[in-house]
Amino acid sequence: MGQKDEPALGVPYYVGQNPYQAGAIPPNAVFGDPKGIPIQQTMYRDTPAPFNCPFCGSSGLTFVRSKPSLAAVVGCMMPFMLGFCFLCPSMDCLWHKYHYCPNCNEKVADFEKTDPCLGVDVPQWTQQSFALPA
């Protein structure tokens, strides 16, 4: 009862809005081949991401394979009323992305589009994936 409310240790306290929750990229982010830098967390998105492979131990950039998602099918159905469908690589921003190691070809992560009503976030569409050093 007599304890004061104190913030938890290790959790940064932000007055107002947390810039990283708003989409800001941390200043220590790694883009491209990490070249042996130990990585704490990798953000797997639409583009190849820097990573350390848990299977073979190599570091580098993932290669990405795509599969149509429910969002792509819904996007295809909208213009279908006009008589044509755009379920093709031009709608790649709506497809699921699966990241593989270029060395051992093992799947290391996936980035699935879960919202069928979500379109492309145009300002962030060409943003590279990044990793945070340990």
From TrEMBL:
The compartments listed are: Membrane
Coiled coil start-end: none
Q: Does the keyword tRNA processing apply?
A: no
**Where is it chiefly localized?**
membrane
Q: One short Pfam family name for this protein?
A: zf-LITAF-like
Boundaries of each LITAF domain copy? 33-113
Note the superkingdom of the native organism. Eukaryota
Q: Where are the transmembrane segments?
A: 69-88
**Which Gene Ontology terms cover its molecular function?**
zinc ion binding
Does Transmembrane count among this protein's keywords? yes
Keyword entries, A-Z: Membrane, Metal-binding, Transmembrane, Transmembrane helix, Zinc
Q: Which InterPro entries match?
A: LITAF, LITAF_fam
The record's Gene Ontology cellular component field reads: membrane
Q: How does it sit in the membrane?
A: Peripheral membrane protein
Give the record's family classification. Belongs to the CDIP1/LITAF family.
Protein name according to UniProt: LITAF domain-containing protein
